[in-house]
């Protein structure tokens, strides 16, 4: 057998790489899973793909690629992530020096219930120590929240949910429904008929949830908090 043949990339891997780099997002998601399942050669393709896209704003495609490499847990892959994406694929910007790395880690592993609780804590941090102590936010304070901080939290949710979750997703749905709150609650499964979804067991903490289902945004405090969040200047800049 020709020794050089062993160095030739498997044709299936080459075909998958072509689909990954030229295909639509709908094609890319399953292709990435196939590449991860293919082992070391497939993971190397995912690594090249992430590196080539690093200069762009992260999308859920980048998020999924990162998540699959994170799940691989081989020394080579973990070294690659630590050297090239030590804080993930989303820029963790904050105007107030907030640390969003713990939120990134939870969302990258799709630990959505824990991430939701941490998101509320981070929102309380933006309001101040009193809000952190009482564990909820006043809607009147939300307009003053830093744009970059809300955008960072939103982008983390969006990128690590295949584009299903986040404040901006909830806002888009709300606008598409003519700013009708009652229609939104049903659309995102926060209410069924007259019954509000019970926290936490009534909510769905994985990607089978409807679009916009998470984060909960302190929803137990009523419509005013959501109204303030979805009207924040962060989504208009």
Keywords:
single chain, 237 residues, mainly alpha, Serine Threonine Protein Phosphatase 5, Tetratricopeptide repeat, Arc Repressor Mutant, subunit A, 2 domains, two-stranded antiparallel sheet, 12 helices, 55% helix, 2% strand, globular, disordered N terminus
Short description:
InterPro entries: ARM-type_fold (IPR016024), GUN4-like (IPR008629), GUN4-like_sf (IPR037215), GUN4_N (IPR032192). Helices cover 55% and strands 2% of the residues. The chain is mostly helical.
* Residues in helix, %: 40-55%
Number of strands: 2
Distance between the termini: 61 Å
CATH superfamily of the largest domain: Gun4-like
- Describe the oligomeric state of these chains in a short phrase: single chain
Order of helices and strands: HHHHHHHHHHHEEH
Q: What is the averaged pLDDT score? A: 92
- Give the strand order of the largest sheet, numbering strands 1, 2, ... along the chain: 1-2
CATH topology of the largest domain: Arc Repressor Mutant, subunit A
- How many structural domains in the coordinates? 2
Sheet of most strands: 2 strands, antiparallel
Shape: globular
CATH first level of the largest domain: which class? Mainly Alpha
Task: Figure out the total of helices.
Answer: 12
Q: Provide the CATH architecture of the largest domain.
A: Orthogonal Bundle
InterPro entries: ARM-type_fold (IPR016024), GUN4-like (IPR008629), GUN4-like_sf (IPR037215), GUN4_N (IPR032192)
Protein name: Ycf53-like protein
Domain GUN4 N-terminal ARM-like repeat: 9-86
Domain GUN4-like: 94-233
């Amino acid at each position: 057998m020709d020794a050089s043949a062993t160095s030739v990339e498997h044709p299936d891997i080459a075909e998958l790489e072509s689909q990954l780099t030229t295909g639509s997002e709908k094609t890319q998601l399953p292709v990435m899973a196939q590449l991860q399942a293919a082992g070391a050669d497939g993971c190397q393709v995912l690594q090249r793909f992430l590196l080539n896209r690093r200069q762009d704003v992260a999308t859920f495609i980048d998020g999924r690629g990162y998540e699959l490499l994170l799940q691989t847990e081989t020394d080579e892959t973990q070294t690659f992530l630590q050297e090239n994406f030590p804080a993930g694929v989303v820029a963790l910007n904050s105007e107030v020096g907030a640390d969003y790395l713990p939120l990134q880690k939870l969302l990258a592993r799709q630990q959505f219930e824990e991430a939701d609780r941490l998101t509320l804590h981070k929102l309380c941090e933006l309001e101040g120590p009193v809000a952190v102590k009482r564990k909820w936010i006043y809607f009147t304070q939300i307009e003053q929240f830093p744009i970059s901080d809300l955008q960072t939290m939103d982008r983390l949710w969006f990128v690590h949910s295949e584009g299903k979750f986040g404040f901006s997703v909830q806002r888009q749905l709300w606008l598409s429904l003519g700013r009708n709150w009652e229609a939104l609650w049903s659309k995102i499964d926060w209410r069924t008929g007259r019954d509000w979804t019970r926290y936490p067991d009534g909510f769905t903490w994985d990607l089978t949830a409807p679009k916009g289902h998470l984060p909960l945004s302190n929803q137990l405090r009523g419509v005013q908090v959501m109204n303030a969040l979805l009207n924040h200047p962060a989504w208009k800049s």
